[in-house]
Design brief:
The protein has about 525 residues and is an alpha/beta fold. The protein contains 17 helices and 11 strands. The protein starts with a helix and ends in a 26-residue tail after the last helix.
Length: about 525
């Protein structure tokens, strides 16, 4: 311990250690998918912030850890944003500065059992508040929420149906805090042990109590993944390949065919020849096609990304325009200020236009689907609203072709498992170049992933369920619960700060008087 304290005595070494500690949880996400690591990955960061000599230094520790976490989770953006990713991580990392202060406030020094017990509730709540702020679309969205690392753990998926990914994040942080207390805070080990037992009991109770999706039907959905198509005329050549792959589905009894994001690079009103070819594919397969058009619209100004349903007679009129755009990738926030990003990376040269509302489409065969585009699958509220509006199946159309050799495709595909478990609706994640995946209404994977090397069309037998999960019914209830905890803490701190000003302690004895009868001045 003395060696560690000596190492952390240097501000630069301490900052580097905090940044590395903050980056550690990325190993719990795909592609490594060491999900179990999430339950101890925050412990080093907590121990660093706990040992801070001052509150200001603890804030730096929180900031540096947040910088390391965001940089690690989004490292695959480096080829696109270059130096800008470091600026974004530094700015958003500030959100963890108050968290670092709270770690020191509750666990620093020799905390009492009461402070240790409070930390087990306050610190996960503060983490949830950070995830709430950074999940705003303008700040990049909720990519890399800590609870999302548990996408392949069956008990965690059951908990997601109760409180969404928010509940998972809260419990993962609570376990980390308990582990840190068990390791470093002797006086509070009993509350920490009780907290671990309570977490285990909560997970077990959710397993027993939370309603399981009752399968009441099945549909056959085909995913068409063309693979990488680059170079000149890539839009036409990609369409040709998707057309060939789709024709192989004829006679296989599919109910819906799904293409990935930007699978059609031309507005269908401007290219009626493509609309006719898609209609012919619908007739050949006996199913509607859900394609994704990334083009300048003929009927209004600007470029849109849109899910477009095509039937045997052409486009049906069902269309969803993407609402939540990727910062810098599809638009540049405050372009007059940050427009220079286009000169250092592959930032959007022209802002895409936003849609105005979500859409549930009737694709025939009694099947209603709710489309999401690209990183909209990271937003739990969007899939929840689609389930409320009557969607039988959630559909994510995506493309991560710019990040083929990174962890991004696997990370993106894993999000659909959480959305399925939260809503009790199966989810199809269809991409251009992988990873494509399909999940049942309990969040478990159906069939194999289509990896980044695959160019194929695959049919999935998808079970349907129509119950209402507690998460769909009650929404993001862990978030207001966490904010209430922080509000109570703030009120208690305010009372503690005001109380001494109202008189402080009573004097132990009357003040001494001088020979002139006036009270003697105390020593300063």
């Amino acid at each position: 311990m003395r060696t560690i304290n000596h190492w952390l005595a240097s501000p630069w070494r301490r900052s580097a250690t905090a940044a590395l500690a903050g980056a550690l949880p990325v190993l719990a996400f795909p592609a490594p998918s060491l999900w179990w690591l999430a339950y101890v990955a925050l412990v080093p960061w907590i121990l660093v912030a706990r040992s801070a000599p001052t509150a200001r230094r603890a804030a730096y520790d929180g900031w540096c850890g947040g910088f390391g976490f965001l940089l690690a989770v989004h490292h695959w953006l480096l080829p696109s944003l270059h130096v800008f990713i470091f600026l974004i991580a530094a700015l958003l990392g500030l959100l963890w500065a108050p968290w670092g202060v709270l770690v020191r406030r509750l666990l620093g020094g020799e905390p009492s059992a009461g402070r240790g017990a409070a930390a087990l509730l306050v610190l996960p709540s503060a983490w949830l508040a950070v995830e709430l702020v950074r999940s705003w679309q303008g700040l990049g969205g909720p990519w890399g929420m800590l609870g999302a690392s548990q996408w392949q753990v069956a008990p965690a998926l059951r908990l997601a149906s109760v409180g969404g990914v928010w509940l998972l994040s809260f419990l993962v942080v609570a376990v980390n805090v308990a582990m840190a207390v068990l390791f470093a805070v002797r006086a509070a080990r009993l509350p920490a042990l009780v907290s671990l037992l309570a977490t285990a009991a909560t997970a077990s109770a959710a397993w027993v109590w939370a309603p399981r999706p009752d399968v009441d039907g099945r549909v056959r959905i085909a995913v068409v993944q063309p693979g990488v198509v680059a170079g000149q005329d890539s839009g036409d050549r990609r369409f040709d390949r998707e057309e060939r792959l789709t024709r192989r589905l004829a006679g296989r009894g599919v109910d819906l065919v799904v293409w990935g994001e930007s699978s059609v690079g031309f507005d269908l009103d401007d290219r009626p020849d493509l609309a006719r070819r898609l209609a012919a594919l619908s007739r050949a397969t006996g199913a509607d096609l859900l394609v994704n058009v990334d083009a300048r619209r003929a009927d209004r100004p600007g470029i849109y990304k849109s899910s477009v349903l095509v039937g045997p007679h052409g486009p049906t009129g069902d269309r969803y325009d993407k609402m939540r755009l990727v910062p810098f990738g599809e638009y540049i926030p405050a372009r007059s200020l940050f427009g220079w990003a286009t000169s250092v990376g592959r930032a959007a040269g022209e802002d895409r236009q936003r849609g105005t509302g979500q859409t549930v489409m009737n694709v025939g065969h009694g099947l209603r689907v709710g489309p999401l585009i690209c990183f909209e699958t990271a937003f739990p509220d969007m899939s929840r609203h689609l389930a409320e509006d009557g969607a039988d199946v959630l559909l994510g159309q995506s493309s991560t072709s710019s990040f083929q050799r990174s962890w991004a495709p696997e990370q993106h595909a894993s999000l659909a498992a959480l959305r399925a478990a939260e809503t009790g609706r199966p989810m199809v994640h269809a991409t251009l170049t992988g990873v494509s995946a399909v999940y049942g209404p309990d969040g478990r994977r159906l069939g194999p992933w289509l990896g980044t090397g695959a160019s194929t069309a695959r049919v999935y037998d998808v079970p349907l369920a129509h119950g209402v999960t507690p998460y769909v019914r009650h929404g993001d209830w862990p978030v207001p619960g966490a904010l209430l905890v922080l509000a109570v803490l703030g009120a208690a701190e305010g009372v503690r700060a005001v109380r001494p000003r109202r008189g402080g302690r009573a004097p132990l004895a009357p003040p001494a008087r001088t020979v002139h009868g006036s009270p003697a001045r105390p020593w300063r």
